[in-house]
Amino acid sequence: MAWKDLSELAPQLTQGEINFEKKKRLVGLILGPLGFAVCWFLTPLPHVTPLGMRSLAIFCWAVIWWITEAVPIPVTSLLLLPLIAVCGLFPYEKALGYWGHWTNLFLFGAFLIGLFGTRPNVARLLALAARAATSEGGPPPEVAQEIPKVQARLKVLARTALALIVVAVLAMATARYW
Questions:
Q1: CA–CA distance from 65 to each of 10, 72, 82 (Å)?
Q2: 0.85 cut: is pTM over it?
Q3: C-alpha neighbours within 13 Å on the C-beta side of residue 97
Q4: pLDDT of 2
Q5: Of 56, 36, 34, nearest to 44 (Cα)?
Q6: Is 53 helix (H, G, I), strand (E, B) or coil?
Q7: What whole-number distance in Å separates Cα of residue 64 and Cα of residue 80?
Q8: Which run of H or of E encompasses 149?
Q9: For position 29, what pLDDT does the model report?
Q10: 88 Rama class: left (phi>0) / alpha (psi -120 to 50) / beta
């Protein structure tokens, strides 16, 4: 299930469930950093180095926020990523370098194209923008008749582009093993 804001969940939930969600998210928002601090200042467990305890602190924060859905899961990942460098687990270049690799950025862009391309009004907005850019004072009737066809083609193009990008990245990643 994808993370949803309370305003999106409200029509499906009773007032008691909404109150529970609010409390759960607030408690998670507080317990995450608190769990981090407890693990950070706790004496190291047997056979665990201080570096391992710092890793456990970051892990506790992330898990608490993921379980309670205090913030969206992708936001949790992005907020906690700098902690790897701040806590001294890796140098900044190494910790943040993995996320800045071209493959990750390429896939992120491909998924964004696919996400926006499959939204119901994006194709319509692109078609209207193209129409506005090519005509003054409104489109002629023959152009207005073509807008639904353009919308359908843009949706197919977005899905096809996303599939091709994912297959190309997977092929490039596995090509060295063939």
A1: 21, 8, 16
A2: no
A3: 5
A4: 60
A5: 56
A6: helix
A7: 12
A8: helix 141-175
A9: 93
A10: left
